[in-house]
Amino acid sequence: MALNLDRLNKEGFTPVLSKTYSAHIPLGPDTSPRAYIQALNHGLADIKKEILADFQNLPTPADTQ
To answer: Which residues, listed in sequence order, are joined to residue 40 by a DSSP beta bridge?
Structure first.
């Protein structure tokens, strides 16, 4: 999953974060549609944690307008 975050300020758009996130979740012996969806959900949950951690480490904007 690719994320590009820009901030709009007086001068225009300023890049804030540009990162590609990935997760590798093996299916194991169960290759049913349900197992596939569970693996996708697990991977997306891991990616969400990474994105939130990255947002918490972003500097506070000096100009919020």
So the answer is: none
